[in-house]
GNAT family N-acetyltransferase (Streptococcus danieliae), 176 residues
Amino acid sequence: MEDNLKLVDLYSWIGPIDSVNFDCGVSKINNEVERLFNREYDDRRVLGLVNSLGDLFGVIAFSLGTTSLIQKEHPLERYPVLSLDLLAIQKDYQNNKYGSRLLASVLRIALTMNCLVPIRGIYLEALTEASEFYEHRGFDELHPFAPGMEFQKLFMNIASIEQLDLYPYSNIFNLE
């Protein structure tokens, strides 16, 4: 596991980044990473875990959103959330806690945002094969899983995030 990694905003990063060869092992996610690097979305923040050579270990993308949290609270009401749009780790670097590190960063960003504008928590739609990763870290499923579902809708409320041993970022321009 490499320790000299930095979490950087990929849209403002000036150093080298090797995004062309990014492969997390899931073509759907690789295509989404390519769209992010081509700046096809203007409503998402994209962060990367990179080393000093510009090797890209992982990517997260998130945005502000709303969700109805059906089956968890009041049906049909919409709540502000941080939407985790993508978390991907380069295939060669998987199972080295880089995904946990990126997720912890997003949790800290949620805490930081909640200090400025109240949010209910973090919402995401995970590939079914990745849902265990999130559930193991405290996310709850919003809808019962049904065979054939491609995505699992998951949520962690802000109160649960506040119970973790994490703190809001004190400087949003330096995410270390």
Summary: The chain has a mean pLDDT of 86. Residues 138 and 156 are 7 Å apart (CA to CA).
